[in-house]
Design brief:
104 residues; mainly alpha; 5 helices; 2 strands; 40% helix; 4% strand; globular
Length: 104
């Protein structure tokens, strides 16, 4: 499955609406939230989406984006490279949890 054809700058909003309404294929949830995290979109929209991303990061399913981000409230979200290998959101943590980086 070519995720970048399914989840991209033109489709993410519709997919997020499908997620909110319970109609998004469960296999697309982590890739959608990895895309939203990579783009730092997830930290700028409705708080429940940030909470979902944080839960997926804690589980190890997704990682933080490549660039750090500060939202309008001053909250700072690190890049995946600024973290130690033991911290949720890093590539090492994800690997230890048995997941692979979702390339999107």
């Amino acid at each position: 499955m070519k995720l970048n054809k399914i989840i991209n700058k033109s489709t993410w909003f519709e997919l997020l609406f499908m997620f909110e309404s319970g109609h998004l294929n469960h296999e697309l949830v982590a890739p959608l939230f990895q895309f939203l995290t990579n783009q730092n979109i997830v930290w700028q929209i409705q708080g429940t989406h940030g909470s979902t991303a944080a839960a997926l990061i804690d589980e190890g399913m997704i990682v933080f984006g490549e660039e750090p981000f500060r939202n309008g409230y001053g909250m700072v979200y690190p890049s995946r490279y600024e973290l130690t290998e033991d911290e949720p959101g890093s590539l090492g943590y994800q690997k230890r949890r048995g997941y692979k980086l979702i390339r999107i």
